[in-house]
């Protein structure tokens, strides 16, 4: 295909379409004026064609303009040539640099401009990117750049020339520097040593720099200069001479192609000199004066050292360096250097150094050689008399009191001698003692510095005179004093008294005196102030001596009270003052319930240790006392300030006594301090409410509270004594936590029953919420009578958890542990919030716990004959159910006896089945296992033993040696094993029993029928006695039965519970028989029946001398019962020392035995008085404190308050409402007593018992009622019956006394009426609603008060009560406030005999009815009396017949306290015993056996007309 090209158009070159440098121009881009083209090129330069088209014109001249011919091409075709005038870059020239300017010049080829028709329009210069000087001018010129202001700075510069064709002629870009400023260095940083100099801290005077060049010449240096680029670099020059001056040059430079240096800094620098070899004080004469010292100095021996150095000495006096001296020193090696202008008497330190260039700023010094020496002290110039401590007998002069002459100083001074005056001076340093008052002395004194002593001078000092105070008592503004003067010593010292003056404090002279012995009166002073009085004596040597100052007090004005601060035990005052003037303190006292004194030294005064609620007389005095005085020395007292003040009362004892879910009752115990009538109380539920004080109330109830809530009750006590202002106690807060609601149901699931634990699940009412943290289950175990007997608190009841069945938000569960295996249980469940228990409760289903859980395994076995049920399985004796697991566990796993600190608490208190000496009546019940007589239960092992522990006293082996470990150990003769703490030890036997295991000897055991030692109780050694014909040996071997002796006569004296033996002759008696028999007679034995006694006498008298005979058997219990066949048996019972027929009841209750016998000859008829319990042979009411709070140590009435017993002691007894009973372990418990029964052991007055051995027969006597405030006690009551008609509708349900409405209304109106009468009737006890009647709403009630104790008759007190009731119910205010419509009083007291009641015909029938009733009653009473007389005669005759052989006295005791003044009698109670006592045939009475023995109480008999054989007193019987 044929291609054709058209000629392109001409080229157009844009201003930015080319690049230039000094030798070339490159065209980068062209455009066509029209059309298109393929390429372009430079065809010619300044009209000369090039060999070929090119885009770059080369080999050009810098700064020259050229005309370039450019063509466009298309293929081989070229377009027309277009001419373009372009210029190459030109080169700049920079020179003439200064610190602030440079000169810029550039050459231009002007011919090239003209040839190309071009002209320069402007010149532009750019420095560091900024256009600094656009201007016009010729084609070639120099430009001075002087707007730069940073010497040593580095810059970039470029230029351009704008041509008239709008082209720009550009220069190259070049760097240049301003000349740096003069260099600097921090001379303080220059470090010189003996042989080097190090220079750093470089800088310039202004501007910047690139670096520095440092050079040093002299002092032997031959090294090169040092350059650096940082100001903190070091220039180190070493190898220099010591003490030598060198020249240093420092210049700064700016770094370009050729560094540009600034002006040079030149200075000189010394190296440190070598120190002198030695320096000492010259030994030449007069080398030390008061102002000069000569030193001998030895120079350094180093060759060439210190060419530019001199000797310098720095004197330091008293730590202050003086002017450096450069002394003139003579000599070569050892130079004598004289120092001048020194301070006299100063110990100097002379620092000797070598100094290089001493007058130049670059001075250096060597290390110093120190010389210490004193200059000679000067003489004393004067003494500072005013500062010297002067007394009447001494001077005490310190350095500070001495002034040297010539402005010198000194280290110390010496008193060389003391002349003149009286006394013998004793000098100790600056202290001169042994002087006399009012004398002047000459002291020869010299100053010292070190051992150098100055010239001595004489100084005169005078001692003080004595100031004598006037004898008159100071008043509020006046004091009188005087002084004696003694001038005898003045003459010897040529001293005269120039003046006498007196001063008060720092005041000016108050009096000028001219004679001695003058009296001065100082008046117009401030009351209560302490003034300092001085007498001043001026002496001729300018010494002034002051007699005194002595402090004196003026009498203060009376005290002002200030602020009163009162507490329960203190009365205090703050802000005490005086009416005017001053005071030192206050003193005072209070008198009242006790007396207290106190004092203070400020504005406060407190009297502590006072009695609460007591009015005190307070006396306060202000006083003035000189400072430093001790005790009351110098005290001046003011007149008295007196007032009366009462101390605060103690806070009452507030306790929460009754809580329900909606109410709280607070019990208040009034403080006992002060007068009870002056106490008032205020209660409130909000702390911010105002206190309203009211009279004392024993209880306060707050209603309408929220269940399960904490309520704060604020209580305040006020004591309002009419003799002083009322005072209030501190506020006490009582927290009342209301009870929660009760559970709806509770159950124990079959799968949650163990041997010692069960799980109870209780359901709380739905919709009621409580806090889990405080809400729990409280469970009680119920007994067979559905009574709560034991609270279970072993575990905390909580909500059920996920996985429990059932489990909802309102179900709570509780694990009850510590139960007894094989026991039937029912639990009563309460809700518990804090300590509050819900009123309502629910009972669980009845369950029986398992016997043991490891059924059929090991020690958990089924007893023979028992049904195969889980609850019937038992642990073998010696094993017990583990309280945690329910499995049978060994009760004492330790095989050996542990130490006292590690006793296994699991050990049982019984021996184990199958072990030696252990007998179990039930092999499954360890409680039936007992150690046989003659053994004891080891305290740390469940085994019985007859052996004592090695190491215990009197414990021997079978050979009689002291027992050691690993052998059998027994108690030696006369000693018996007994448990003492953790050990089995040996105690001395008293001969009252024998040892059945020992038999007749320690190594000879008698068992079976041949054992002469037999026991009534096989488990109680104390019941073991020797058989007939044997007795317990005395002084040789107690416990061993030996053959009996014969005694021929025996006199028996009878008393219930006592057998007395009187030995008149002994036959064949051994040496110890008397002791044996006396011990035997001291035991309590039951009297033998007469036939048995005769039989015994016959046996004793007829037996041959050496045969075995029956003897009296000691009974270790409390009585010996003898059967009809003559056999004897020990039975437990109480012992009565009362053998009188006629004994008042109050006498019985005052007797220490508290035991009474229906028949004084029959031990079986003896029992404890009502209210007491037989325990271990003694009648007691002492309860065990651990049982609970029902056991108390004391109580008080109105209201009833008790003090819980804290330990088991004799003063513990059951609180009112309870009486003493025994549990299965013989512990005395407190059991609730019926309300209708009175307890004569608490209060005998008004309490009558038909049988004083049975508390259930005790009730309040006629004229007495049960005390509602103190349960089971009686009080003498006065009662009035009344009726009140309230203006309210009558409810028919009130006619039924068994209805709930009756009970609710009865309780309500009893409280309502009690509130009406309470504050208006004295000694009010109770209001009892007896019924309701229809008069609107009529309330029949009885008003009951206590007997007033005045001796008034019942009728008189009844009339008084009727009057009070009439006044209360007739009060219109009472009627209106309580809506009373009418009232009547049905009780009327008897009228006087002379008053005849008026009757009418209508009452005739009623009187006849009354008479008929009275006749019937009288007939019944007469019939009963006849029956009683017959029965009385029958019983009396029978008893008289039974005891005719022993005197035949009637034994009926009438125990009645109604008529004690005319004789109280114990009636025949045999018919009322209800079978409680066995017949007198020796059978047991059902008491627990005991081994203790009571001592017989000693009381003389008071019964009249007794037969001779029983008329001995108890003392006589025991002789």
How would you summarize this macromolecular structure in one to three sentences?
The chain contains nine helices and 121 strands. The protein is mainly β and 1519 residues long.
How are the SSEs ordered, and which strands pair?
Layout: E1 11-12, E2 18-21, E3 24-27, E4 31-32, E5 39-45, E6 48-54, E7 56-57, E8 65-74, E9 77-78, E10 82-87, E11 93-95, E12 102-106, H1 110-115, E13 120-127, E14 130-131, E15 141-145, E16 154-163, E17 168-170, E18 174-177, E19 183-185, E20 191-192, E21 196-199, E22 202-204, E23 211-217, E24 226-228, E25 235-238, E26 245-254, E27 260-261, E28 265-270, E29 278-281, E30 293-298, E31 309-317, E32 320-321, E33 329-330, E34 334-339, E35 347-356, E36 364-365, E37 369-374, E38 380-383, E39 389-390, E40 395-396, E41 402-404, E42 412-419, E43 423-428, E44 431-435, E45 440-449, E46 452-453, E47 457-462, E48 468-469, E49 479-482, E50 497-504, E51 511-513, E52 519-522, E53 530-539, E54 544-553, E55 559-560, E56 563-566, E57 571-574, E58 577-578, E59 585-591, E60 596-600, E61 605-607, E62 615-624, E63 636-637, E64 641-646, E65 653-659, E66 664-669, E67 679-684, E68 694-695, E69 699-702, E70 710-719, E71 727-728, E72 732-737, E73 745-747, E74 758-763, E75 775-782, E76 788-792, E77 798-799, E78 811-816, E79 824-825, ...
Antiparallel strand pairs: 1-4, 2-3, 3-7, 5-6, 5-8, 8-9, 8-10, 11-12, 12-15, 13-14, 13-16, 16-17, 16-18, 19-22, 20-21, 21-25, 23-24, 23-26, 26-27, 26-28, 29-30, 30-34, 31-32, 31-35, 33-34, 35-36, 35-37, 38-41, 39-40, 40-44, 42-45, 43-44, 45-46, 45-47, 48-49, 49-52, 50-51, 50-53, 53-54, 55-58, ...
């Amino acid at each position: 295909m044929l291609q054709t090209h058209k000629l392109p158009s001409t080229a157009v070159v844009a201003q930015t379409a080319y690049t230039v440098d000094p030798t070339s121009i490159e065209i980068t881009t062209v455009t066509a004026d029209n059309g298109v083209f393929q390429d372009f090129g430079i065809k010619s330069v300044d009209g000369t064609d090039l060999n070929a088209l090119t885009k770059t014109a080369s080999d050009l001249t810098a700064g020259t303009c050229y005309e370039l011919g450019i063509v466009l091409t298309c293929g081989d075709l070229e377009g027309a040539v277009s001419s373009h005038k372009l210029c190459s870059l030109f080169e700049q020239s920079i020179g003439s640099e200064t610190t602030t300017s440079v000169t810029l010049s550039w050459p231009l080829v002007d011919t090239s401009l003209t040839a190309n028709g071009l002209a320069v329009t402007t010149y532009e210069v750019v420095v560091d990117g900024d256009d600094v000087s656009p201007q016009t001018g010729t084609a070639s010129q120099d430009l001075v750049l002087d707007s730069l202001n940073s010497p040593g700075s580095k810059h970039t510069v470029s230029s351009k020339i704008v041509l008239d064709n709008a082209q720009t002629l550009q220069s190259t870009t070049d760097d240049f520097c301003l000349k740096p400023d003069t260099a600097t260095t921090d001379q303080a940083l220059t470090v010189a040593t003996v042989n080097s100099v190090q220079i750093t801290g470089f800088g310039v005077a202004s501007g910047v720099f690139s670096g520095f060049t440092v050079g040093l010449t002299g002092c032997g240096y031959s090294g090169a200069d040092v350059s650096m680029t940082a100001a903190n670099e070091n220039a180190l020059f070493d190898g220099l001479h010591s003490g030598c001056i060198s020249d240093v040059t420092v210049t700064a430079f700016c770094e370009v192609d050729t560094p540009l240096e600034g002006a040079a800094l030149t200075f000189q620098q010394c190296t440190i000199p070598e120190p002198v070899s030695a320096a000492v004080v010259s030994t030449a004469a007069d080398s030390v004066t008061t102002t000069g010292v000569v030193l001998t100095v030895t120079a350094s021996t180093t060759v060439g050292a210190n060419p530019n150095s001199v000797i310098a000495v720095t004197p330091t006096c008293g730590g202050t360096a003086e002017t450096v001296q450069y002394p003139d020193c003579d000599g070569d090696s050892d130079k004598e250097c004289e120092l001048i202008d020194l301070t006299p008497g100063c110990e100097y330190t002379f620092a000797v150094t070598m100094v290089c260039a001493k007058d130049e700023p670059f001075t250096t010094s060597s290390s110093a050689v120190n010389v210490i020496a004193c200059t000679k002290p000067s003489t004393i110039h004067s003494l500072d008399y005013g500062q010297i401590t002067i007394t009447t007998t001494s001077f005490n002069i310190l350095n500070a009191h001495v002034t040297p002459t010539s402005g010198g100083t000194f280290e110390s001074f010496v008193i060389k001698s003391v002349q003149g005056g009286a006394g013998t001076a004793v000098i100790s340093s600056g202290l001169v003692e042994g002087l006399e008052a009012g004398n002047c002395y000459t002291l020869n004194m010299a100053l010292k510095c070190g051992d150098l002593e100055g010239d001595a001078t004489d100084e005169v000092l005078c001692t003080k005179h004595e100031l004598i105070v006037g004898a008159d008592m100071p008043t509020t503004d006046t004091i009188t004093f005087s002084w004696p003067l003694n001038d005898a010593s003045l003459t010897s010292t040529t001293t005269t008294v120039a003046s006498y003056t007196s001063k008060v404090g720092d005041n000016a002279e108050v009096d000028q005196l001219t004679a001695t012995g003058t009296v001065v009166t100082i008046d117009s002073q401030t009351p209560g102030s302490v003034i300092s009085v001085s007498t001043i004596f001026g002496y001729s040597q300018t010494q002034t001596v002051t007699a005194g100052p002595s402090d004196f007090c003026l009498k203060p004005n009376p005290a002002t009270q200030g602020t009163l601060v009162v507490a329960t035990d203190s009365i205090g005052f703050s802000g005490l003052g005086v009416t005017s003037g001053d005071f030192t303190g206050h003193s005072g006292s209070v008198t009242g319930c006790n007396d207290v004194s106190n004092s203070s030294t400020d504005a406060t005064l407190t009297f502590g240790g006072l009695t609460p609620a007591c009015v005190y007389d307070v006396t306060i005095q202000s006083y003035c006392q000189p400072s430093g005085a001790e005790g009351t020395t110098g005290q001046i007292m003011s007149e008295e300030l007196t007032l009366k003040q009462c101390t605060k009362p103690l806070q009452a004892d507030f306790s929460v006594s009754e809580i329900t879910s909606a109410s709280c009752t607070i019990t208040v115990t009034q403080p006992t301090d002060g007068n009870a009538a002056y106490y008032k109380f205020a209660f409130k539920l909000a702390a911010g409410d105002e206190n309203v004080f009211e009279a004392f109330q024993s209880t306060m109830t707050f209603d309408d509270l929220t269940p399960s809530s904490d309520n704060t009750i604020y209580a305040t006590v006020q004591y309002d004594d009419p003799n002083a202002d009322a005072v209030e106690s501190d506020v006490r807060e009582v927290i009342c936590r209301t009870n929660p609601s009760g559970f709806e149901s509770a159950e124990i699931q079959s799968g949650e029953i163990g041997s010692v634990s069960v799980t109870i699940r209780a359901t709380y009412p739905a919709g009621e919420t409580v806090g889990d943290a405080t809400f729990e289950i409280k469970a009680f175990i119920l007994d067979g009578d559905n009574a709560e007997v034991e609270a279970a608190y072993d575990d905390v009841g909580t909500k059920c958890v996920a996985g429990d069945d059932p489990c909802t938000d309102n179900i709570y569960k509780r694990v009850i542990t510590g139960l007894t295996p094989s026991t039937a249980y029912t639990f009563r469940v309460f809700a518990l919030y804090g300590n509050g228990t819900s009123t309502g409760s629910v009972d669980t289903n009845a369950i029986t716990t398992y016997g043991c859980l490891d059924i059929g395994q090991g020690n958990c076995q089924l007893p023979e004959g028992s049904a195969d049920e889980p609850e019937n399985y038992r642990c073998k004796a010696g094993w017990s159910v583990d309280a945690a697991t329910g499995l049978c566990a060994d009760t004492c796993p330790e095989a050996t006896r542990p130490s006292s600190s590690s006793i296994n608490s699991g050990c049982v208190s019984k021996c184990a089945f199958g072990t030696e000496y252990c007998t179990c009546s039930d092999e499954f019940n360890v409680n039936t296992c007992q150690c046989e007589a003659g053994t004891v239960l080891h305290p740390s092992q469940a085994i019985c033993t007859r052996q004592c522990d090695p190491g215990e006293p009197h414990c021997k082996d079978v050979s009689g040696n002291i027992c050691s470990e690993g052998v059998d150990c027994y108690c030696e003769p006369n000693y018996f094993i007994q448990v003492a703490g953790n050990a089995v030890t040996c105690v001395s036997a008293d001969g009252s029993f024998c040892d059945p295991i020992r038999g007749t000897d320690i190594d000879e055991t008698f068992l079976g029928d041949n054992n002469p030692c037999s026991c009534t109780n096989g488990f109680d050694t104390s019941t073991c006695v020797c058989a007939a014909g044997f007795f317990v040996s005395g002084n040789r071997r107690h416990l061993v039965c030996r053959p009996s002796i014969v005694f021929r006569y025996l006199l028996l004296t009878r008393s219930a519970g006592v057998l007395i033996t009187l030995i008149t002759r002994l036959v064949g008696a051994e040496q110890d028989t008397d002791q044996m028999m006396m011990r035997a007679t001291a035991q309590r034995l039951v009297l033998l029946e007469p036939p048995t006694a005769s039989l015994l006498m016959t046996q004793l008298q007829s037996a041959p001398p050496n045969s075995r005979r029956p003897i009296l058997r000691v009974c270790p219990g409390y009585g010996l019962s003898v059967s009809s066949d003559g056999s004897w048996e020990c039975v437990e019972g109480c012992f009565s020392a009362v053998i009188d027929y006629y004994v008042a009841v109050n006498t019985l209750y005052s007797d220490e035995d508290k035991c009474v016998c229906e028949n004084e000859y029959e031990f079986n008829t003896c029992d404890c008085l009502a209210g007491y319990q037989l325990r271990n042979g003694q009648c007691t009411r002492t309860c065990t404190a651990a049982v609970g709070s029902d056991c108390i140590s004391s109580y008080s009435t109105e209201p009833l308050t008790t003090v819980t017993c804290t330990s088991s002691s004799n003063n513990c007894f059951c609180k009112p409402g309870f009486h003493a009973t025994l549990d299965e372990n013989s512990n005395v418990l407190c059991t609730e007593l019926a309300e209708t029964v009175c307890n004569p052991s608490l209060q005998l007055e008004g309490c009558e018992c038909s049988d004083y051995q049975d508390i259930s027969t005790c009730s309040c006597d006629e004229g007495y009622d049960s005390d509602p405030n103190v349960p089971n006690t009686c009080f003498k009551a006065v009662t009035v019956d009344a009726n009140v008609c309230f203006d309210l509708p009558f409810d028919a349900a009130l006619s039924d006394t068994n209805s709930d409405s009756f009970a609710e209304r009865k309780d309500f109106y009893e409280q309502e009426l009690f509130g009406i009468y309470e504050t208006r009737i004295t000694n009010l006890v109770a209001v009892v609603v007896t019924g309701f009647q229809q008069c609107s709403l009529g309330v029949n009630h009885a008003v009951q008060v206590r007997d007033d104790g005045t001796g008034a008759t019942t009728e008189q007190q009844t009339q008084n009560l009727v009057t009070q009731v009439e006044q209360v119910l007739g009060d219109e205010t009472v009627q209106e406030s309580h809506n009373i419509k009418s009232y009547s009083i049905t009780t009327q007291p008897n009228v006087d005999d002379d008053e005849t009641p008026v009757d009418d015909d209508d009452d005739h029938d009623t009187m006849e009815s009354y008479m008929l009733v009275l006749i019937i009653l009288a007939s019944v009473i007469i019939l009963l009396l006849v029956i009683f007389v017959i029965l009385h005669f029958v019983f009396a005759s029978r008893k008289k017949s039974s005891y005719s052989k022993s005197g035949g006295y009637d034994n009926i005791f009438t125990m009645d306290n109604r008529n004690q003044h005319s004789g109280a009698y114990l009636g025949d109670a045999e018919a009322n015993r209800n079978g409680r006592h066995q017949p007198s045939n020796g059978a047991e009475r059902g008491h627990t056996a005991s081994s203790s023995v009571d001592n017989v109480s000693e009381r003389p008999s008071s019964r009249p007309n007794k037969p001779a054989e029983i008329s001995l007193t108890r003392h006589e019987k025991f002789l």
